[in-house]
Design a protein that fits this description.
- The protein is an alpha+beta fold.
- Helices cover 18% and strands 23% of the residues.
- The strands form 2 sheets. A 4-stranded antiparallel beta sheet has the order 1-3-6-5, with no helix packed on it. A 4-stranded mixed beta sheet has the order 2-7-8-4.
- Strand 7 and strand 8 form a beta hairpin.
- The longest helix is centred in the first third of the chain and has 17 residues.
- The chain is rod-shaped and about 135 Å long.
């Protein structure tokens, strides 16, 4: 009885194709190679950004303010509070009494600090010489009606 064998073409190709495939195949001698399961995401330039925070000066020098008016919105202490202004917890400087905004610098340690203050009359300058001129206000009380006339714009008469 004759047994059927594989064709001679297959027999002759088997050893050579097996070795060449194993050398160039990712599953060859080294075993399986892992590939990424997710594709790499692209980058977004500038990430779309966020809206501006509207920081900066809101009232300028010699501009009239009333209590509660915001003078400066800032991150950190670029400006420090002077007389008749206070600083909020987000470093916002606001007026505590009516008057006119004044900016000035004072020496602090080895540098100069920028300050913001409020004065009662337009011509006053800061820092105030309290020894010669006295205190600017008595216990923080101010005649508000005196300043109401300055803040209103006069109406032209017809």
């Amino acid at each position: 009885m004759r047994y059927r064998t594989a064709s001679p073409i297959v027999k002759s190709m088997w050893p050579s194709t097996c070795t060449t495939k194993s050398l160039f195949s990712p599953f060859g001698v080294l075993g399986a190679v892992r590939n990424a399961t997710k594709r790499a995401g692209g980058t977004v330039h500038n990430h779309g950004g966020s809206p501006g925070k509207r920081l900066g000066l809101k009232k300028f020098s010699d501009q009239f303010v009333i209590p509660g008016n915001i003078i400066v919105r800032q991150r950190g202490t670029t400006f420090h509070p002077g007389p008749h202004v206070k600083m909020g917890r987000d470093h916002t400087i606001f007026a505590t009494s009516p008057g006119f905004v004044r900016f000035y610098k004072e020496k602090f340690m080895s540098k100069e600090r920028k300050f913001v203050g409020v004065v009662l009359h337009r011509g006053e300058i800061l820092p105030r010489d309290e020894a010669a001129l006295g205190r600017s206000r008595y216990c923080g009380l101010v005649n508000v009606t005196e300043h109401a006339s300055e803040s209103q714009v006069p109406q032209p008469s017809a």
